[in-house]
Amino acid sequence: MQLLKNTLEIGLEKPVKILHVTDSHIAFADEYDDERKHELAKRFESPERVEYLKEQIAYSKENCDVLVHTGDLMDFVSHANTIKAREILADEHIFFIAGNHEYSQYVGEAWEDKAYRMNSYMEIERYGGFGVPMLWNTRIVGGVNIVGIDNAYQLFEDWQIHHLKKEVEKGLPIILAFHDPLFEQSLYDYHYERVPNDTCTYLTGLDEDHLARYSEFRAYQHRPDEPTLRMIEYIKSEPLIKAILTGHVHFNYLSNITPGLPQFVTGSGYEGRAREITIV
Ligand SMILES: [Fe+2]
After folding, report:
1. pLDDT digits (tens, 9 = 90+) for 21-56
2. For residue 81, how many other CB atoms are within 10 A of its CB?
3. Fewer CB within 10 Å: C terminus or N terminus of the chain?
4. Residue 111: burial class (beta carbons within 10 Å; 0-12, 13-18, 19+)
5. Which domains, ranges and CATH numbers included, belong to the chain?
6. How far apart are the CA of 112 and the centre of ligand 1, in A?
7. What is the predicted pLDDT for the residue at 108?
8. Of 107, 7, 59, nearest to 272 (Cα)?
9. In angstroms, what is the span from residue 7 Cα to ligand 1's centroid?
10. 248 alpha carbon to ligand 1 midpoint, in Å?
11. Within 13 A of 110's CA, how many CA atoms are on the CB side?
């Protein structure tokens, strides 16, 4: 495991420790899954992925108050992956919010939008579900309110803003957890330094100037709609929101969305990355 350690100072009386893990991408298929799922499982499965996850969970239970997993626990929708995910998430130490791969049928083969997500969600339910909420999740740990929001396709929705405001009314400091990082200039630049010709940066909330570098397909897919812009403005303006935990891009990064709001982007869990955040 490649463990990063950070401290977040928000004035807590007693420290709270989070292990942030994301993008585990476990890949299994069984007798209920079709041939294409078996091919994907053969292509992506490696024993290290599950071993790293076990190691991260064991470390967190030993050293942290909660493990926050920000999605892409599984690589694609399958019966076998759903059963495995449910087994993993039955451990109450783990707090989970879904990523885009939780809804991916065959990994990147389709136009992925809300209808596609709902279709996959129904299939996962057909297999008995994850046993925990996928689209919205909250948990109070120590003096901190952890709020998980599904933004798997770089979009937020108005109902999520309503419920986030309800969480703010509880008066506790909030740590947001979602899969796709919010746009921040240095993170955008860093992505293009790493992959200069990439079709997109996978960030949420880009304006037209920044979308201009995207492929037409990705610009259309990742252009923020009105609820998404409203949510980002609300997140930036609410002083009880103290930090954001995200993943999806598979590299570690830390920068500030506003002067008082850090965004922790944690790299690929399937390659052993994890981040321990001590909140004081
Ligand atoms: Fe992802």
Report:
1. 999 999 999 999 999 999 999 988 778 899 999 999
2. 27
3. C
4. exposed
5. 2-279 (3.30.750.180)
6. 12
7. 76
8. 59
9. 25
10. 4
11. 17
